[in-house]
Amino acid sequence: MNMIGARMSTTPSTGRNDAQGRGSDESSFSAHLPLSRHEVDRDYLTRDRPDVFVELLADPATRILPVWKGRALLAPGASAPETDGFGATGSADGAKSSLALLAPSEVPGDALLIYLGRSLADDAPEPIGTPLVAAVLSDEQASAVADAEQWGNLRMFATDLSARDAGLATEAIAIANWHASHRFSPRTGRPLVSSKGGWVLVDSEDGHEIFPRTDPAIIVGVTDADDRLLLGSNALWEKNRFSLLAGFVEPGESLEQAVEREIFEESGVRVTNATYLGSQPWPFPASLMLGFRATVDVANPGSLEPDGAEIIDLRWFTRDELASAGDSVILPGRSSIARAIIEDWYGGEIDD
After folding, report:
1. Dihedral sign, CA of 197, 198, 203, 204?
2. Is 296 within 8 Å of 269 (Cβ atoms)?
3. Do 338 and 226 share a structural domain?
4. Dmax of the chain from CA atoms?
5. Lesser CB count within 10 Å: N end or C end of the chain?
6. Which portions of the chain have biased composition (kind: Polar residues) (predicted)?
7. 236 is in which domain, residue-wise?
8. pLDDT tens by residue, 197-244
9. What distance in Å separates the CA atoms of residue 204 and residue 114, rounded to the nearest whole number?
10. Are residues 191 and 45 part of one domain?
11. DSSP string, 271-316
12. Please, which residues have CB within 8 angstroms of residue 72's CB and are 6 or more apart in sequence?
């Protein structure tokens, strides 16, 4: 998971709940996952209309979200936030960000279009029921629509968005990434054609349909008998950047098996009691992060040792140690489920 610098100033709690209601039940935990928020009806039946985009573009109420290279267009005055490149959130001037939703006439007519659904937000500028469409732009098209600084990386401004805009941007970027990586049929090598509102790709010769794919990955807050939290540093990061251990689920494997295997492979630690917390889409490019807690297997604990390839350092942290670490430990950004799991264990928010 990507990370930002963090300074711990919150007094750690010895429990799982804090004054703001953060708890271990799924609904409470999921409420703290920025990319899991949504207020959009995906309206899947409309995708089947043969002339869906002719209808939508002719409707003056329709609004278009431009997407370019995994970035969404931000509204004027809400420029992309400053960041260290590891998931920092918050706009440069402290203002909340919002997406730029354009009229159909403001978007190039030959852009790839994807029907996202209808707005359900009662606090958005657009009324409930507004049709929403993503337009995936080329470099030339994007430069004609807006300056480069208006295109925002979702992982860096997710927490500044409303629930509707966070869900809308996540959906749009995820499906746009799928289109970018599935231009040709894996069976025949022939070009694929977008169909059903952008949610199906079709081989134009034999009619074979290809549907969007999501890669499930587990991410785990591992604790020992003393309730210390295990954090690791990736070989690609600077040495003081730490996060939870995570990995992709393999074919034919349950989520619980993936938790046990990945933790052992990366740390040498054997875990048990894998407990599901919640999930968050992570469209960078196409993952679904499945959050778990697990405990060291007392009967067969293994031996703490980083794999040396992906993970180069491992450390156990008490709450007091994490609170006093200061800049010596850089934690994941607020857009990540890793941050939510760490704070769930910690018992409160960790101030940046």
Report:
1. positive
2. yes
3. yes
4. 66
5. C
6. 8-17
7. 26-34+214-346
8. 999 999 989 999 999 999 999 999 999 999 999 999 999 988 899 999
9. 18
10. yes
11. EEEEEEEEEEEETTTTEEEEEEEEEE-SSS-B-----SSSEEEEEE
12. 65, 66, 99, 151, 152, 154, 169, 172, 173
